[in-house]
Design brief:
heterodimer, A: mainly beta, Glycoprotein, Type 4 Pilin, 2 domains, four-stranded antiparallel beta sheet, about 5% helix, B: about 500 residues, alpha+beta, Rossmann fold, Dna Ligase, domain 1, D-amino Acid Aminotransferase, Chain A, domain 1, five-stranded parallel beta sheet, 17 helices
Chain lengths: ~180, ~500
């Protein structure tokens, strides 16, 4: 369709369907019912100007593999961009058979591991205490979201961990 | 005596602030750094920089012996502790003096006396400074706690004698909750301060936090530099501070300043300090504590008075006389500070760390930014997560708010979650604008249901789509962000169980 590209972009609680159409005068974006001339000018690494119709605004943006960090007007958010083609492709594929999954218990904030309450091979009931993380002067209890069996413990008591660090891995099926 | 060289025993924005004061005074500054702060902004700005030790504060910025050794080796005559770390550590102040170094702050004995809350309450009551009704001594057993509570009347607050920062503090609404609350408060106080002693105070509902900046020289002169309202807090940590306190009747304001000067005299205070008060809805106020150091929020006082508090601290430490009488202090206009923290404000203010990929700093009329980081710096996870303090001055409060809103919209720290949007929300809130807020504002109103305006989200979405579009048509181009994200790993983390 004459070079149109469609994206589904999710920013916080908002999702937008955006179609970019090249024209002789540059790009035009269709967002919902609105159609506007748009342009992006990258000025410096992670800094650019966005033109929408007769409005120009400053945007800070750093792309990652799945989401982009974006700042506009003092607001900061992550934008997840999915190309519509990829969405259609995913919809056309047969659903995969339900497989054994793994549950990742990750650090919800940077902190220090006060204690790990499980060991590899152990069964962990839903809501059971898995580890205690000391952060912000408080003890935070990390619990299993559902029944699992400990596949691996990746931290030791006293370790300092970053936000998002993998602490414990659970299998959703018992070991054979 | 005047100093040729000062060691700055701190990091981040306050180290930068002190280094700048030194530079203006023609004094050489010595920065110190841990493994986490190699090449940090204060290190880049100082005349020299010395390595302290590993990243954990205990092994670096809290290592008194090492700091004194570095100060002596560098040939410094004085040590400025900033705030936090060793700033209110009387033993460190005494150790500096013993090593022939001038500690830029109050005397060790003053810090010790003010550090024990019951001692401070006794001294203030003796000096005629109003204190919150309650016990002047620690309660030693349950029976004493019951009779004290009955005397002041419920609800009460149990507080740690050695305390501060809300630790070891418990609200008690009824006698049947007292035993358990006392046990919990004692245990928390023991853990936090090594001292389980607790005292009893009447709990003031819907209070405002108002504090007075004082400056005292070693020749007996004390001046009050106006007050600050710091009622926008979460878990006893201040987020927004302003001067003057809005809506304060002139008589109340005069009473507060006078009480603060009395408090400073009663404790033999020297150097800059802050006397904190709690202001009840009925206009009565009570002494809370003295912060025996430079405060984070000192810039709002500087903006209104036109004085430089850090330079004044250095002059006082050098034995100089304060050149101002109380009548010379005539604050003008209004100033507000927003603390920009690397924290996820929408998710319980969880700290965030990482490199600042892109930074946009505001300026223009009435704006002052005290930042500890620049683009390319990383915010480490080991320390307080303050990135910068954004302040605005206006001829009145409304102008200061408008300038801050304008500046916040120009401000960005891309790479870490931060509190800029939180500040935009508070500054626009009718309760804050009308100055009807109290210390319960944040738990009452935050987070709001919708945080990101749709128009802003739409611009973000358009920009992200356009960047993707152009990258796919210029596939060779790549930049650091992708490597950065790959190195950080996937951040699909669920936030649970946070208060």
């Amino acid at each position: 369709m004459n070079g149109e590209t469609s994206y589904q972009v999710t920013v916080g609680e908002h999702t937008f369907d955006i179609t970019l159409v090249p024209t002789a005068d540059g790009l035009v974006a269709r967002v919902g019912d609105e159609t506007r001339a748009v342009a992006w000018h990258a000025r410096a690494p992670h800094v650019g100007t966005l033109t929408v119709g007769d409005r120009v605004c400053e945007v800070l943006l750093a792309e990652g593999p799945e989401t982009a960090l974006v700042a506009v007007d003092g607001y900061h958010a992550e934008a997840r961009v999915i190309e519509a083609r990829a969405l259609q492709l995913a919809a056309s594929l047969p659903a995969r058979a339900v497989q054994a999954e793994q549950i990742e218990i990750r650090a919800p904030m940077p902190g220090r591991v006060l204690s790990v309450r499980v060991a590899p091979g152990e069964m962990v009931p839903a809501n059971a205490l898995v580890a205690i993380l000391e952060a912000m002067k408080m003890e935070n209890e990390l619990r299993a979201p559902r029944l699992g069996w400990v596949a691996a413990v990746r931290v030791a008591e006293g370790d300092t961990v970053e936000h998002g660090a993998l602490l414990v891995l659970l299998n959703t099926t018992p070991p054979v | 005596m005047s100093f040729q060289k000062i060691l700055v025993a701190n990091r981040g924005e306050i180290a930068v602030r002190i280094i700048r004061a030194c530079r203006e005074l023609g004094v050489r500054s010595v920065a110190v750094y841990s493994d986490a702060d190699v090449g940090s902004l204060p290190v880049r700005l100082a005349d020299e920089a010395h390595y302290l030790g590993p990243a954990p504060a205990r092994e670096s910025y809290l290592n008194a012996e090492r700091l004194i050794e570095v100060a002596r080796r560098a040939g410094a005559q004085a040590v400025h502790p900033g705030y936090g770390f060793l700033a209110e550590n009387a033993d460190f102040a005494a150790a500096c003096a013993a090593a022939g170094l001038v500690f830029i702050g109050p005397r060790p004995e003053t810090m010790r006396a003010l550090g024990r809350k019951t001692d401070a309450r006794q001294a203030m009551r003796a000096a005629g400074v109003p204190t919150v009704p309650g016990t002047l001594d620690p309660v030693t057993d349950t029976a004493a706690a019951f009779s004290a509570a009955a005397e002041v009347g419920y609800p009460i607050a149990l507080k740690a004698v050695a305390g501060g920062g809300g630790r070891g503090m418990r609200r008690v609404d009824a006698p049947e909750d007292l035993v358990e609350a006392l046990r919990a408060a004692q245990s928390e106080a023991l853990g936090a301060f090594g001292d389980p002693s607790i005292y009893v105070e009447r709990l003031i509902e819907r209070p405002r936090h108002v504090e007075v900046q004082i400056l005292a020289d070693s020749h007996g002169k004390v001046v009050a530099l106006g007050e600050r309202d710091c009622s926008i807090q979460r878990r006893y940590q201040k987020l927004i501070e302003e001067s003057p306190a809005p809506g304060l009747p002139p008589a109340t304001r005069a009473g507060l300043l006078d009480a603060a000067v009395q408090a400073a005299r009663a404790s033999g205070y020297v150097n800059a300090g802050t006397v904190e008060f709690i202001l009840a809805p009925d206009g009565s106020y009570y002494f809370l504590e003295v912060n025996a150091r430079l405060q984070v929020e000192h810039p709002v006082t500087e903006l209104c008075t036109g004085l430089d508090l850090v330079k004044a601290q250095i002059a006082v430490a050098a034995g100089e006389r304060l050149p101002w009488r109380q009548d010379d202090i005539q604050p003008r206009g209004a100033a507000i500070e927003c603390r920009i923290y690397a924290e996820d404000a929408a998710n319980g203010f969880v700290p965030s760390s990482g490199p600042l990929l892109a930074v946009r700093v505001p300026d223009g009329p009435g704006i002052r930014l005290d930042a500890g980081y620049e683009q390319g710096d990383a915010v480490p996870l080991y320390y307080d997560s303050l990135i910068a303090k954004l302040c605005a001055w206006g001829t009145d409060r409304a102008e200061a708010i408008a300038r801050l809103q304008r500046a916040l919209a120009e401000c960005a720290y891309l790479g870490v979650r931060n509190t800029i949007a939180f500040h935009r929300y508070v500054l626009a809130h009718p309760e804050f604008v009308a100055a009807r807020h109290d210390t319960g504002f944040v738990p009452r109103h935050w987070p709001p249901e919708a945080l990101l305006p749709e128009a802003v989200a739409r611009d973000m979405a358009l920009a992200a789509a356009l960047v993707r579009y152009h990258r796919q048509r210029a596939p060779r181009r790549d930049d650091g962000a992708r490597d950065h994200w790959a190195a950080r790993g996937r951040l699909a983390v669920t936030q649970r169980g946070l208060p």
